[in-house]
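Friendly challenge for the regulars: who can give me the structure tokens for this chain first? No prize, just bragging rights.
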Amino acid sequence: MPSTVGLANLFADLARGLEGNRWCVMGAQAAILYGSTRMTLDVDISASIADAERGLLLRRLGASGFSPRIGDALEFAQRTRVVLLIHSITGVPVDLVLAGPGIEEEFLDRAHVLDIGGTRVPVLSPEDLIASKLLAGRPNDLSDVASLLRRSELDLDRIRELLRMFERALDRSDLLVEFERLAHAAHRT
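First reply, four minutes later:
Bragging rights claimed.
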């Protein structure tokens, strides 16, 4: 796990490399920034980058201390919508997910800006983070949800609305039930 100073440097370099683009920290690192005690060895971010600007983005991130983790990063991003990077100073892997239209852009709009070592860093809102982690559903994700539910300032109705939307879109019926179970366990109903 990188040091707090190392992460502050990484976020400052990301902010510099992504200047002018909408982006936010998501995944486990976002959960940690909101108080989860879990450990992670990477940083996941989402960014809205036009297809034609991806090459320029890689050059700007390169000038800010990031290198591709694979040979043809742009071709891989075209297929997967993920740019695999590594921060040269800390050695921390960064997965940059290219945000698509719709809900992913809404997530960027609702990101909360946190001060991390003097850098303004947009972070996926706690409500959006909870909904996305319930959708992923892995044990670590559910543990993060349990930790996040201990926050007092959550909009539980917003989380329920997102989960209903995910269930309709994906023809699922388990997300809201799992949320209510975790909220009840956290004494948040």
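The chain has nine helices and seven strands. The chain has a mean pLDDT of 91. Your move, everyone else.
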